[in-house]
Design a protein that fits this description.
hydrolase activity, acting on carbon-nitrogen (but not peptide) bonds; binds zinc ion; 6-stranded parallel beta sheet; TIM Barrel; two-stranded antiparallel sheet; Polysacc_deacetylase_ArnD; Peptidoglycan/xylan/chitin deacetylase (PgdA/CDA1 family)
């Protein structure tokens, strides 16, 4: 009883110090950015106390999602969370008129998360690319058909997803991809030439392997942003993607994001889609006409 009381007292004391410090820093940033919120349909500044509570909630949420403190302060949080009704006009003005394109790609499906992922993409008018495993296509044929019907790109990711098996030779790579190609055609009636090799092309895809897939008109695609969504199931990958996208935006590299068809990715997908929508990006599928991006082109 005595110990519990002491601990509680310390906790309270830390709050007394931390909360005003964090809120005053945030308030300075928020006010200098002219942050206002909608209330009763009118744009009006928040009172200091509302702003205070609001900011602290948002900061803790953003840390949970893996945003860096730099990103949080730079953007003032307002264009990360549309549901807060914060006016992001000022931030939108800074975006240029040149077309911003992002290619969202999902690997390892389809599975039971596929249709909900498709529904989520529809909400944001986003198109994506799905690199699928052949046995999963057989197991979830309806999801494959839906992807095609809703205008997404579909491609092959092999059969085994086992590095020791698929990368035995150029021929084993080719066989796995062509097996997937055939199944995809049987299910959805489309022939795709887009492939992504499991774990990426480097170091597995030797020059000979690449030459063989190229000869067989298969286009090998890697990515420029690895979300590592499989590693961060609680959502920290969101911050990683957004931080990487902001860094990549100033380069000439294409923005190709690697994600996976996972329920945990679906759970936080709104944040990713909202970020790109609010920042003026078009979310497009990869096409057969595009020059594929692979790691060796870097
Ligand atoms: Zn994979």
């Amino acid at each position: 009883m005595e110990r519990k009381k002491t601990r509680k007292w310390w906790k309270m004391d830390m709050k007394k110090i931390l909360i005003p410090t964090i809120s005053s820093v945030f308030l300075t940033v928020a006010y200098s950015n002219g942050v206002v919120v909608k209330a009763n349909g009118k744009q009006q500044p928040l009172t200091a106390s509302d702003q205070d509570v609001h900011s602290i909630r948002q900061i803790s949420k953003s840390i949970e999602l893996g945003f860096s403190p730099f990103t949080v302060l730079k953007t003032g949080l307002n264009h990360m969370y549309a549901d807060t009704n914060v006016n992001s006009e000022k931030l939108q003005q800074t975006s240029t008129n040149t077309k911003k394109i992002v290619y969202l790609t999902f690997d390892d499906g389809p599975n039971h998360a596929s249709i909900p992922i498709l529904n989520k993409l529809d909400q944001y008018n986003a198109k994506a690319t799905f690199f699928m495993l052949e046995p999963n296509m057989k197991q979830y044929p309806q999801a494959v058909k839906e992807m095609v019907n809703r205008g997404h790109a579909v491609g092959m990711h092999g059969v085994t997803h086992n590095a020791k098996m698929i990368y035995q030779s150029a021929l084993t790579v080719l066989n796995e991809m062509q097996t997937g190609q055939k199944t995809l055609e049987e299910i959805a009636g489309v022939q795709s030439h887009l492939i992504r090799s499991p774990y990426g092309s480097f170091p597995h895809m030797k020059p000979l392997y690449k030459a063989v897939v190229e000869e067989n008109e298969l286009h090998l695609w890697d990515w420029t942003i690895d979300s590592e969504d499989w590693k961060y199931p609680r959502g920290q990958f969101v911050g990683k993607v957004i931080n990487s996208a902001e860094a990549l935006a100033s380069t000439s590299k294409p923005m190709i994001i690697l994600m996976h068809e996972k329920p945990t990715t679906l759970a936080k997908l709104d944040y990713i889609l909202r970020y790109f929508q609010e920042n003026g990006y078009e979310m497009r599928p990869l096409t057969e006409q595009m020059e594929p991006f692979t790691f060796h082109h870097e």
